[in-house]
Amino acid sequence: VVTEKAHFYVVIVGHVDHGKSTLIGRLLYDTGSIAPDKLETVRQACAEIGKPFEFAYITDQIREEREQGITIDTTQIYFHTDARNYVIIDAPGHREFTKNMITGAAQAEGAILMVDAQEGVREQTRRHAYLLKFLGLREHIVLVNKMDLAGYAEETYRQLCAEIDALCAALGLAGYTFIPVSAAQGDNIAARSARMPWYTGPTALEALDALQKRTRLIDQPFRMPVQDVYDVDGERIVAGRIESGGVREGDRVARWPG
After folding, report:
1. What is the Cα–Cα distance from 246 to 62, expressed in whole angstroms?
2. Phi, psi (deg, nearest 5) at residue 85
3. Which residues touch 170 (CB under 8 Å, ≥6 apart)?
4. How far apart are the first and last CA of the chain?
5. How far apart (Å, rounded) are the C-alpha atoms in residues 250 and 223?
6. How is 140-176 classified by DSSP, letter by letter?
7. Residue 107 in contact with residue 134, Cβ under 8 Å?
8. Residues ≥6 apart with Cβ < 8 Å to 104
9. Based on C-alpha coordinates, what's the Rg of the chain?
10. Which pTM does this prediction carry?
11. Which of 16, 51, 87, 258 would suit a FRET pair with 8, their CA atoms being 20 to 30 Å apart?
12. What torsion do the CA atoms of 132, 134, 136, 140 make, to the nearest 10 degrees?
């Protein structure tokens, strides 16, 4: 039984094929959040196209996506831990689907940036990092994925962290946590990996629970920059766009300056 909590929105972004959908599938699988019939459906889908079981197919529900091996549209997955309820947004990695990614990320309160340990920082890695900054997301987790294919090498991880750190610093991004993982094998996702004893930080799940929930714009104080003031038939009309909070007829508002 899960007590009622406010949902926390997290967007997962990164270059195509760096493991976003696989991560979500693994998280759901490792925490027992997938119904047995759902797993069987995925197994059958993999068998139909002649592939072994892949965690990414848990989120890639569109047949066209399964055949092409990419995520085309943003997918929202409801998920929970003991700490909170989540809405995880799986955003597409292809450049052609950047608009879809922005649509998903605009709802998020935190972000996970996936980077392939072998491929490193790519075009969409930089593009998505910039968009996260543009959208005002301040809470980030950077997962260096596919460490199994990199031999779980600490040096490879450290070098990539330095490159990503330089990228984030150039963009003015802060508040991010680096974690070496293998989404396919489950290393440092829900449990700490014995194959990377040199890493002593949080797992991906622990880092998610540590993200700070930001106050929604509607719950913040009323703010409306004034664009202009008009006199229409003896009535003064103040025009502008509401940036936060809300206002109702009869409310008292403060005007600044003055």
Report:
1. 39
2. -95, 145
3. none
4. 54
5. 16
6. EEEEEE-TTTTTT-HHHHHHHHHHHHHHHHHHT---E
7. no
8. 11, 74, 76, 89, 90, 91
9. 22
10. 0.73
11. 16
12. 20
Of 138, 155, 102, nearest in space to 213 by CA: 138
Q: Which residues are CB-contacts of 112 (< 8 A; sequence separation ≥ 6)?
A: 10, 11, 12, 13, 20, 23, 140, 141, 142, 143, 204, 208
Size (the chain), residues: 258
Residue type, 82: D
Beta strand 85-90 with 110-116 is unpaired
Left if phi > 0, otherwise alpha if psi is -120 to 50, otherwise beta: which for 245?
left
pLDDT in tens, 167-191: 888 888 877 899 999 999 999 999 9
DSSP single-letter state for residue 189: T
Closest CA to 69 of 142, 111, 19: 19
Q: Please, what is the Cα angle at 176 between 5 and 191, to 5 degrees? A: 65
> CA-CA distance, 130 to 93, in Å (whole number)?
14
**Euclidean distance between CA atoms 132 and 86, whole angstroms:** 19
- Using DSSP, state whether 112 is helix, strand or coil: strand
Tokens 């003991």 map to which residue? 82
